[in-house]
């Protein structure tokens, strides 16, 4: 049973894989999800730039993405993954379903955050002769920033749990590790170690996110 | 400076609710340098009217001219540029929490594309002007209501507008802060030669700062004009608001109304009726206030013991310049209750959930 010296490097590699998958997909999710959330917000009826039909269509697509269980999505987007990355196995390939799964999630959180910005602030800025994009850039995003940071934190935590799930179909990372070494080889100690690692990771991220959001809130 | 011609604003029916005509054929003219008030009960369309002046709301029909420019003929881009000639101050301040006081004042200058050094200098001047030279780095959350409104005024003045719109600018403030903000408005109007359009439901505010006012009810102008003229106009609904008198039900003797101005004080009338004629004179109601810096009032007297000499005496007084007449109970418009309903959390309401939910558009 004393094979930890053999397992430890692999555990380190699995941890690194998880951080890599979650890190890259977080960046991609923010890059796609935030603009999508902005679009959802400003095209709503009565909003800054109302496009009711477009808004409803976009809302439908986002809801579709949110309602699919991640494990189904993993299988469903496999052809897209193969097209983009060349394979469906490994942590780089997993970034594709992770991002596709997290974008609608973050987009809705962003929308909720932006809606919380009072219309009075928007109106005041429009009264200065601002363009709509100025309102988004100088009012909506900065005013919602603390809440956006909290939203991204929640998304990262969700991405960690998605990534563990992706491990089940060969995605690599801590989830994969826990199943191959812990579950399939009846090594409860390995499973527990992985769980503790994930727990510490999530706690650290949540703590850092909360701290950052609070520092931005200025209240 | 501001010219509205037959302006209408209809909010279309939405979600089963009927359409709302918030502003219904209003014509209004404010001269350059004038301090004009718009008063009216909640739901009368006064906040919408303010938003029609800088086209935050596009009128359904009618013409809006500001500083010689026909705003209603401009496209969106033209309107954006024209808005820089109109500063706006709001009831709930609408300062950005993500910026300091200085950052908030700087905001319109950034949008106008002014260089950084120039911006800094202008911000310093403006915060100095509103008496907050020592609060550059304060966040809105660290300022009092009055201070927040001062920052908002500095921000509204940043782009050197010619017109200042104040939408219930003092309604969220305590009396002391209100007085301070009104003093500041008076001061900047005089120093910068601004034209001010002030929306309010507080008559004390109109009495303190306005040269003229209009009374709005259900989207229509009911009464209006220069205050000095309105206050001497008999049966004026706006005068009844400005100088409220209690309704008289119990009539003992003859009722006489005196309109008090600085050139027609009440002393002469009282002397004639009580002294010369020896009649029994009681003041049954009325008010005397300082309006636009001058003394105005309306007094209702109950006179008993008339033996036929009252009417000739009143005529003699009128000939001598006094504003005095016989009154009947209920011949004056009853002042409407202008108190706003529970402070609407409009300023804190979620973005865009508004339009028809704006404080002045009741469903």
TrEMBL record, chain A:
GO CC aspect terms: plasma membrane
Cell compartment(s), UniProt: Cell membrane
SUPFAM superfamilies in alphabetical order: MetI-like
InterPro entries referenced in this protein's UniProt entry, alphabetically: AA_ABC_Transporter_Permease (IPR051322), MetI-like (IPR000515), MetI-like_sf (IPR035906)
Residues of the ABC transmembrane type-1 domain: 15-205
Domain of life: Bacteria
Lipid bilayer topology: Multi-pass membrane protein
Keyword terms of this UniProt record: Cell membrane, Membrane, Transmembrane, Transmembrane helix, Transport
Entry's transmembrane regions: 20-45, 57-78, 84-107, 147-170, 190-208
Keyword Cytoplasm: no
CDD domains listed in its UniProt record: TM_PBP2
Any single biological process term in GO: D-methionine transmembrane transport
Family indicated by similarity: Belongs to the binding-protein-dependent transport system permease family. CysTW subfamily.
PANTHER family: ABC TRANSPORTER PERMEASE, D-METHIONINE TRANSPORT SYSTEM PERMEASE PROTEIN METI-RELATED
Protein's UniProt name: D-methionine transport system permease protein
TrEMBL record, chain B:
Keywords: Amino-acid transport, ATP-binding, Cell membrane, Membrane, Nucleotide-binding, Translocase, Transport
ABC transporter domain sequence ranges: 2-243
One example of a Gene Ontology biological process annotation: amino acid transport
A GO term for molecular function: ATP binding
Entry-linked SUPFAM superfamilies: ACT-like, P-loop containing nucleoside triphosphate hydrolases
Region described as Disordered: spans on this chain: 325-363
Function: Part of the ABC transporter FtsEX involved in cellular division. Has ATPase activity.
Protein name: D-methionine transport system ATP-binding protein
Natural source organism: Blastococcus aggregatus
